[in-house]
Amino acid sequence: MIQNERQYKVTQTKLRELEQAAVNINPPDPNLHPRQVLSQKNSYNKLIDRLKQEIAEYEELKSGRIETLQIDDINDLPIALIKARIALGMTQKELAEKIGTQEQQIQRYEADRYGAISFDRLMKVAVALGMSLQGSMEIAIANHKLD
Amino acid sequence: MPPFNSLGYLPPGIYEISWEELMERFATNPQRQRIVTGLAAALRKLAIAGCTRVIIGGSFISAKEEPNDFDAYYDNFGLDFDLLDPLFVENIDSQQEVFCGELFPTIGYDQFLQTDKSGNPRGVVALDPRKLNS
Predict the structure, then answer these.
(1) Which of B9, B77, B117, B120 best tests the A interface by mutation, with the highest count of A CBs <10 A?
(2) Which of A36, A50, A142, B92 suits B6 as a labelling partner, its CA being 20 to 30 A distant?
(3) pTM for the whole structure
(4) Which Pfam family is one of this chain's hits (chain A) (predicted)?
(5) CATH code for A74-129?
């Protein structure tokens, strides 16, 4: 997932390089085994599609058209925090200033999908992003007895 | 093998490594061992087709405690393409599921693994899949 402008630019460059490489094998060298050509073609296409998707997702978030984020799994909460920041047009540096930390710390949190953040700091991030729940959250508790 | 740098990567470069060294350095917890099992399966399939060199990178080759997968590319010159497993040709979409990671042919992909998402250079490891025992 693209998290900032620098990654956005790097991803665009990588995409251009791959698209050029994909053009270069077309038409394929007749001396190459057809399965070699196919393996290369499929690999390029897979990577190109993935980068295009990442770019489209980032551009969509940045467009300002997104007002709510939906998650189906509590594990997706960190992703929602990152998306919310981008959708607000807030840079990692701006978020860092709001919660009183360094830009690099936010970059680490996001790269690590907020895996190592403390709960009180996580709440500060959510507040800084102006996040609120719409309605209430229904939390299921697995119903099994321990032996 | 040098220690990880401040970004949690090997310093830029390609480090030749044996399978035993890779296990010792990177298969350090159950999640990482799961990834290594998939990687071994992929390397055995590549060895059957005569592949002699695979470069491995991504978050698996970093200080990250629980990487999701590995990223790799393989030297595809001189391979016996009739023997190359469909997972590398027709069915590359299934690689993630079967191998816990992805392997692509070298060309156009080498620069990919040697920089991160932000363009920071990072080190990768190289090994010969034919030397994988058992």
Answers:
(1) B117
(2) A50
(3) 0.86
(4) HTH_3
(5) 1.10.260
